[in-house]
Amino acid sequence: MSRRFDADREGIEKQLDEICAGYVSDLPVGIADAVRYGLKSPGKRVRPLLLLYAYRAAGGKEEATLLACAPEVIHSYSLVHDDLPCMDDDDMRRGRPTVHKVYGSRTAILGGVVMIPLAAKVVRNSARSMRLSHETRAKLLETLLEASGSRGMIGEQLRDLAGERL
Fold it and tell me: CA 79, CA 98: separation in Å to the nearest integer?
């Protein structure tokens, strides 16, 4: 079990490297660097592992590592924005300077925003390569965007900020 877990985690890290190489390379250099830095921040990769294991438990047979990375892209975006001076104003995350400390707030904001369509592209491309139905592909994308939007993660961040002002 431990070897499989380690192999899956390593596969996720490799897939994140490939996302950085293939999806981020056409961005302007400063933004691309900030996205890579934010996306490759050290972490346990719990979200993609949970997605991967849920997919397998439900009987999924196709390679789903790329798909499993899409929520990690959204999570990385949320951390980049959460650390900004106008939000939680954190200078360090997981033992290293935050994106805005390394690249500046403007670049961190733009880098975070770029991660949203990046995650959507990851879902689209992975679902196609997995040969999922059009309906399933649409549902995956809708779920990702809903969970990360105003009724999901962004809405929760707004409530969090409102609570801090009390």
Answer: 9
Strands 92-93 and 96-97, bridge-based pairing: antiparallel
Measured distance CA(34)–CA(108) in Å, rounded: 6
pLDDT tens digit sequence for 15-25 = 999 999 999 98
Give the span between the Cα atoms of 43 and 94, in whole angstroms: 8
Enter the pTM of the model. 0.94
Q: How many CB atoms lie within 10 A of CB 53?
A: 16
Torsion of CA 73, 74, 78, 79, to 10 degrees: -20
| CA–CA–CA angle 14, 68, 35 (5° rounding) | 60
Q: Is 12 helix (H, G, I), strand (E, B) or coil?
A: helix
At residue 166, the pLDDT reads 52
d(CA 152, CA 146): 6
**Number of continuous H segments (helices) and E segments (strands) in the chain:** 8, 2
State the Cα–Cα distance between residues 123 and 139, nearest whole angstrom: 10
